[in-house]
Automatic annotation (TrEMBL), chain A:
SUPFAM superfamilies xrefs: MetI-like
Protein's recorded name: Peptide ABC transporter permease
Transmembrane segments: 101-122, 134-161, 181-200, 235-261, 281-304
GO cellular component, one term: plasma membrane
PANTHER family found in the cross-reference section: DIPEPTIDE TRANSPORT SYSTEM PERMEASE PROTEIN DPPB-RELATED
Domain ABC transmembrane type-1 as annotated: residue spans: 95-304
Entry-linked InterPro entries: BPD_transp_1_N (IPR045621), MetI-like (IPR000515), MetI-like_sf (IPR035906)
Annotated organism of origin: Micromonospora sediminimaris
Compartments (UniProt record): Cell membrane
TrEMBL record, chain B:
InterPro entries assigned to the protein according to its UniProt record, in alphabetical order: AAA+_ATPase (IPR003593), ABC_Ni/Peptide_Import (IPR050388), ABC_transporter-like_ATP-bd (IPR003439), ABC_transporter-like_CS (IPR017871), Oligopep_ABC_C (IPR013563), P-loop_NTPase (IPR027417)
Protein's name according to its UniProt entry: Peptide ABC transporter ATP-binding protein
Top-level lineage group: Bacteria
GO terms of biological process kind: peptide transport
Occurrences of domain ABC transporter (ranges): 5-254
GO function terms (MF aspect): ATP binding; ATP hydrolysis activity
Membership in a protein family: Belongs to the ABC transporter superfamily.
Cell compartments where the protein resides: Cell membrane
Amino acid sequence: MARFVIRRLLQSAVVLLGVTLVVFLLLQLVPGDPVRVALGTRFDPQTYEALRARAGLDQPLVVQYFDYLRRALTGDLGVSFRSGRPVTAIVLERLPATLSLAVTAVVFAMAVAFPLGIVSAIRSGSLVDHAARVFSQFGVSVPDFWMGIMGILLFSGVLGWLPPSGYVALTEDPGRWASHVALPAATVGLVTASILTRFIRSSMLEVLSEDYVRTAEAKGLRTRVVVLRHVLRNALIPVVTVVAVQLASLLGGVIVIEVLFAWPGIGRLTYDAVAARDYPVLQGAVLLVAALFLLVNLLVDILYARLDPRITVK
Amino acid sequence: MKPVLAVEDLTVTIGTRRGPAHAVAGVDWAVRPGETLALVGESGSGKSMSVLAATGLAPRTARVTGRVHLLGMELTGVTEERRRRLRGRHIGFVFQDPMTSLNPVLTVGRQVTEAAEEHLGLTRRAARSRAVELLDMVGIPSAGQRVDAYPHQFSGGMRQRVVIAMALACEPDLLIADEPTTALDVTTQAQIVELVGDLQRRLGTAVVWITHDLGVVAGIADTVAVMYGGRILEQGPVDAVFGTPSHPYTKALLAARPDPAAGSAELVTIAGAPPSPLDLPAGCAFWPRCPVRGDARCEHELPPLVPVSAGHQVRTFYPQPSDGERR
Ligand SMILES: Nc1ncnc2c1ncn2[C@@H]1O[C@H](COP(=O)(O)OP(=O)(O)OP(=O)(O)O)[C@@H](O)[C@H]1O
Ligand code: SF4
Ligand SMILES: [Mg+2]
């Protein structure tokens, strides 16, 4: 297992290297001169040249890239064109907001989707099953920003239970963090829950028709044991991938929701960096998201091997 | 002796999109302690469905009628919960395909003794040593280590041994084996047949053995029931049925058996196809394929099950007298 993890980490490093190259090259293709944008009305040729030189933009591309890489390895991702602050710090300070929103949303989604998916599979055709189908349909077809707005109107406007927007760090005040994260997490989580419910249901149904489930019933096991030990354990294997894909995509930031709820996460940061042509920050954000993606993938592979003994990790 | 399991006038009707399927249209059979009853017949004749329905394992869409007695207990109309407690405890099952009848994510040891944990209240630790014992009993080498292996680490034949160990975990009174050798190669088939025979003698278990293989029937069964179109066409002691087959269908089946003695691969098959359970004929189900076809009654009237000798019955208007030779 340890060797597997090390090998996968090395692979991830190679992928990350590729990501830096692609992002670097893509940014060369984007029209617009970031230094000019950064200077705005304060433009004068001398400052312009000085700034370009300080950012290394007067060097050949290859030199610029290797320079970037060399510094990235020491944790230095450059400085923001806009604020002049180190990119690493800017990106990392957005991480807790995004992480806590993504994880809360996925936990919420699982808490809804597992019971609903399981019950609608073992009672397929029942009232619960139909209700679950309507819920899933609703969740995937209603735009999340609309759901967010409705949530704000109801829980913050009408009922006054939750703050309409804003962020409080978990480390600062867990109670206030929870009240702030509830609405955006539920909004994002509802979509994820809809997708998951469907998937869990169909995965369960597939396993329910397996021969070994009949074997388990033939042994006279209780329904609960058959469902949890025999059906769910197997149905879970493909579900893990879907949960991971959902989590990974949320870690990339949910721009609309973060903007709507004034949530200072990676999505919001990316959005602002693009608008301001703040390339170093954009690069840093993409790199962080890619790293998170790879990490989630690695965790999924480890989990897979734990769930399915037919997969051997070497 | 009281039968271990007996069914009377058992019918299974399965609701399908194309109407009700009469999978089992009224069968009676019984298996006595230590004895082996073989259920034979072509694919779709209702062999599996009759045992599944008798034990409460029929699909949810099925309607089951008739009476079932297990160890003298009336099972008709009892709650599913009660039936569940009897399954695994008093009846063990071995299904056709050992590649799919074991759960891929649980160790074989766990699966083998699950029933004993449930019904006999074995602790996990006791269950583990019991699992080793059972795996050893069915001839799995170094059972002490293999107990923690997963199904995919076993060959087909070894998996079927695991399934047999699993079925016998609570030392049930009855073992139901639904084509347990069909998915295996010929050598392995013989080993499994022998293993079940051995264990049956040692444990005194009654066996219902479902098969297409008449050779196996002759070797292991005490009584045999020949099924066709959801009904039994001929049943009785195996010597009587095979020695003096009296139903045209049984005769045809026995004739269709490849004869190893003659050393020829010649296989006489019965022309035509069995009836659809969606559309069972009003008269004799075998009529369209019957070489005898006594008269118009055959087509329109259901022939009754009539005795031809002690315990030997046939469902035909024209029982065939023995022609004195076995093919
Ligand atoms: N779930 C189901 N829905 C509808 N019809 C079914 C279902 N299961 C079985 N049947 C029908 O019931 C009839 C009896 O099936 P059964 O499985 O008992 O046959 P069998 O004698 O065991 O055949 P085989 O040798 O192929 O196992 C078949 O004609 C089959 O088409
Ligand atoms: S009842 Fe008639 S058709 Fe049916 S098996 Fe007997 S002879 Fe043949
Ligand atoms: Mg069958």
